[in-house]
Amino acid sequence: MNIKMLTSAMGLGTYVPAVQVLEYLRAQGNTVTLELFENYFNEEVLNKYLKNKKEYHRSFKVAKLGHKLAEKKLGNVLEEEDEEKILKRWESEKIEKFIIFSGNWIPVIEDYRKRAKDESRLKAIVVHMDIGTAPSWKHFDNADHFYKEILPIDEMGVQFLFEVPRKGIKQDVSKGEKIFFIHGGGWGMGDYRERKSELQEAIDCKVIELAHAKEEVKEEKNTTYYLLDPEWKPWEPDEHGEYSFPSMRNGETNERLDNQNMKALLDIYQPCTAIISKPGGGTVNDAILTETPVVFIEPVAEHERKNEEVFEKLGLGISFTKWRETGFSVDVLADIQESIRRNKAGKPGLGAYIQSLLKGE
């Protein structure tokens, strides 16, 4: 099959899962090409995007305000000329099957539908990584049910698993050292550094922190740093024209890690007692893959707040505030780990399900 994968790098929670599904589908013999919305930003828009990224990392207050404004201002930022080039290329490539991880692409798909000689030949699958409605999906309307919508995790629980190769079995978090991986998602947003300080003052533990700039890496007792390479830009393909998984480095040595299919990141999770981060869909997907409990710091946006509400109800995580009230109990985290294992048991693979839909099975 010839499949077009459409996503965005506005959040790694929509970028990384798209690349993971792409890898699976290619391994099954499908032809899959990936396009990022940011590839079509003009220089002014791209520079503003990069500036916002830095500001959101620097200030949690600015990040929350920025997300509120984004929900109100989102529209099609593509120039008409760029969209026309996209549509003509898809027509020349005879693209009929789409997998969409970002709502930014919907206006383009809608225009492609209007130009199609036989719309019945088109198939479009939407994958929502968040239970709450993320900003790019605010104006999405599927009244005619043209799009097949999938939530890997919905209000009933885990529905699909990402087919990501993993080695070894996750140990019970009630055993071994207390190790916590703290981060603020792909953009490093939120009050995770404050929560790190509070946790280390309260209990004897080790912390792994994901830094976003070399100057953030410090020599601290019981703290290990990894660096999300600030030079890596998702929308810049490699020398083979392919889009890569996030580039990660050892914070101390600056050595580049093997992060193909998120191997480095998932290996870091392996010994961890819990992940402490925002309630993003991508982070919870990592937790499901590695059977690692999640402790949620304050959400940045409303869709993350909805995520947290549902994930807590399902037993997949706990808010930092509630965990603090337990005295930072590891037993509580052990219960969450068991809930994750129950939720994922016997669930089908997402890539295999998508492939069956596109084949019409």
Structure explained in plain terms:
With 361 residues, the protein is of the alpha/beta class. It has 2 domains: 174 residues, 3-Layer(aba) Sandwich (Rossmann fold); 166 residues, Rossmann fold (3-Layer(aba) Sandwich), CATH 3.40.50.2000. 39% of the residues lie in helices and 16% in strands. It is built from 12 helices and 14 strands. The strands form 3 sheets. It has a 7-stranded mixed β-sheet, with helices on both faces. Strands 2-1-3-4-5 form a 5-stranded parallel β-sheet, with helices on one face. The longest helix is centred in the N-terminal third of the chain and has 16 residues. The mean pLDDT is 89.
In a nutshell, what does this entry contain?
The protein has 361 residues and is an alpha/beta fold.
List the helices and strands and how they pair.
Blueprint: E1 2-7, H1 12-27, E2 31-36, H2 43-58, H3 60-73, H4 80-93, E3 97-100, H5 106-115, E4 123-127, E5 147-150, E6 153-154, E7 157-158, E8 179-182, H6 192-202, E9 206-211, E10 223-228, E11 248-250, H7 263-269, E12 274-277, H8 281-290, E13 294-296, H9 302-314, E14 317-319, H10 320-325, H11 330-344, H12 350-359
Parallel strand pairs: 1-2, 1-3, 3-4, 4-5, 8-9, 8-12, 9-10, 12-13, 13-14
Antiparallel strand pairs: 6-7, 10-11
Helix pairs in contact: 1-12, 2-3
